[in-house]
Amino acid sequence: SHESDQVEIGEGFKELEDFLSRVPLADNNAVFNLCCRLCCAYERKAFKDGLQYGAHLIHELRIK
User: Fold this and answer.
1) Taking the model in full, what pTM does it have?
2) How far is the CA of 21 from the CAs of 17, 18, 30, 52, in angstroms?
3) Which pLDDT score, from 0 to 100, does residue 4 have?
């Protein structure tokens, strides 16, 4: 429901909500929370990897 999210992300969460609306609330919450934790972990890893690769690239460009 974040307006700044890409359309693909918004559509993905809408699809997830549609699927989860058919399961009991406790299961809905458990799956949704797990999905969000995994997304956050993946985003954190991608950010750190991006910084590391960027620093490595800058180092390589300065050496040559």
Assistant:
1) 0.68
2) 6, 5, 13, 40
3) 74
